[in-house]
Amino acid sequence: MRISKLVCGVLAAVVAIAATLGSATAAECPLAAKKSVKVRAVKLAEKKDIVDTAVGAEAFTTLVAAVKAAGLVDTLKGDGPFTVFAPTDEAFGKLPEGTVETLLKPENKDKLVAVLTYHVVPGKVMAADVVKLKKAKTVQGGEVDIAVADGKVKVDNANVVKTDIECSNGVIHVIDAVILP
Predict the structure, then answer these.
(1) Each residue of 88-125: pLDDT tens digit?
(2) Under 8 Å between Cβ of 89 and 113
(3) Going by C-beta distance under 8 Å and a sequence separation of 6 or more, which residues neighbour residue 13?
(4) Do residues 80 and 169 share a domain?
(5) Residue 13 lies in domain
(6) Which of 156, 152, 159 is nearest to 180 (CA)?
(7) C-alpha span between 157 and 145 (Å, rounded)
(8) What count of other Cβ atoms lies within 10 Å of the Cβ of residue 111?
(9) What angle do CA 174, 175, 179 make, to 5 degrees?
(10) What is the pLDDT of residues 28-57, one digit of tens each?
(11) The domain that contains 81 carries what CATH number?
(12) Could you give the CA distance from residue 91 to residue 110 in angstroms, rounded to a whole number?
């Protein structure tokens, strides 16, 4: 009897989690429906911080390498919140030849930090709020220009191509060019 109660409880929990994910309901599992079990909602995958999200995205290998070279990993893994306008690898590829390699050299760390922190705005600014702005002060100290035309958002000379990638410590908006202070 104890085993059947345990199995029923486990099945009910699985069905409850599956229902949360939109793939099943208790009515679709007769055994689980027989036993009413309260299951506390559990997040199966907690949001990752900005750095871990960028690492997992695969389109940001250059950005991640630059963040590591600049010594900004701990900062961007911190509490934040931060809004990061994240250039893709393709965006870094648009820079003049040798620019990335030069910035990644230890003697250019201050320049690299300035470029990277120019892509970060303090606070969590979702796309719905970004479009209401004309400018935003960056962590680097400068201001980025924000323009909306024909439903498209530009940050300085970069187009925002994907918005609202929520992270545990902020949000990432993907841009198609590296912006420079």
Answers:
(1) 999 999 999 999 999 999 999 999 999 999 999 999 99
(2) no
(3) 37, 39
(4) yes
(5) 2-34
(6) 156
(7) 9
(8) 14
(9) 135
(10) 333 333 333 333 333 434 789 999 999 998
(11) 2.30.180.10
(12) 21
